[in-house]
Design a protein that fits this description.
Chains A, B: This is HTH arsR-type domain-containing protein. Two copies of one chain form a homodimer. By secondary structure, the first copy, chain A, is of the alpha+beta class. The first copy, chain A, is globular, with a radius of gyration of 17 Å. Chain B binds a DNA duplex through helix 4.
Amino acid sequence: MQLDKVVNYHKALADPTRIKILILLAEGELNGQVLAEKLGVTPATITHHAAKLREASLIKERRDKNTIYFSLNHYFIKNSASATENLIYQRVNPEHTAERIPDADQQLRESVIKNFFTQDGKLKSIPAQLKKKLIVLTHIVSMLENGRKYSEKEINEFIAGFHEDFATIRREFIMHHFMYRDNGVYELNPQEMWARWEDLK
Amino acid sequence: MQLDKVVNYHKALADPTRIKILILLAEGELNGQVLAEKLGVTPATITHHAAKLREASLIKERRDKNTIYFSLNHYFIKNSASATENLIYQRVNPEHTAERIPDADQQLRESVIKNFFTQDGKLKSIPAQLKKKLIVLTHIVSMLENGRKYSEKEINEFIAGFHEDFATIRREFIMHHFMYRDNGVYELNPQEMWARWEDLK
DNA sequence: TATTTAATTAGATGAATATTAAATTAGACG
DNA sequence: CGTCTAATTTAATATTCATCTAATTAAATA
């Protein structure tokens, strides 16, 4: 039921500490210790909030040594209420508050997602048109964790959650450099991904 | 501080019963008893939730005899996250989910509000251009309760919360038929208000 | 291997809040 | 005035949830 999803999304944003975390992450990735220190809470509290934000797909995580760096999942933040968006980004990007009419491609992106995905997030069909296909691929790949390694089995299961033809979509990911494969292990290619993302704007 | 505002907005939507209330109201206005019956809760519970939704400006109220009819404050709902919007409106308007690119005037409306209002909701200046002025007036007047009578003192204080020149704005409200005055008592003119609203689309 | 550092888990505490029953208020109307 | 109806308030209860401390896990490294 979608009700829970919407409620949980708003619950994730219905706490001042979590909003502050997002505001801090808008300036760049941070690990748990630093977040705890900046916010005057214990690391355990950060773990707690990170779990809620992760469930709502609002943040991503990247592990380096035994430190976990949190960062915003821009994709989901961008598609949220503009009031929230303004508050989160205003410190790092003041023009955001100024006159900024959603451009044509932002609209295209929204309409493609509305058209090609069902209410519960399944992909109805793979767009033939390149630009639309890239939008769809970006949408799906943004749900994966940055920096994490996935086995082929994991990737297949993940993609199958969107569309039965996981082999084609996995191939598209590689072809368009959204991810790369290193002897059986798949990983996101964040630079390429956001580069294509910017291309679309 | 705007943090509280954003948090409270999300708190208002972070409860399944309140989302259900909004979904029901999307089909038309309802009074407390009927809402309680449809949702299987007591009228006291509806009163409780209505207060929260009212604080977040998500609903309006209209009194007829001793019955209070609740309705959506479309203005605030529209400017919320599209996921929420879809869930709320989908039952009454299925095309909403389909390809629907925000039209030019929706964009104008958003940009005028971003330009002419400060972060904490004050009006920076009164637009000279008619269309923009109507957008600003609509925005302010949508915060008033439908059907409620206001004294001139109340109206002045309300408008002063947005801009010091309350006299000019009050006059504009009357001129453009957003409200009417009946021997010292001011009241919204809902039909006219939404008629102009539709004109803007 | 022992130590250090970061993160998580588990359990406890306290605050916020959703809900209800019962009492009260506010209008409408005979 | 008395009665009916709708809404609100109050007080009580139960649940959720933010936060902490203390213990534990995990990885890196000396």
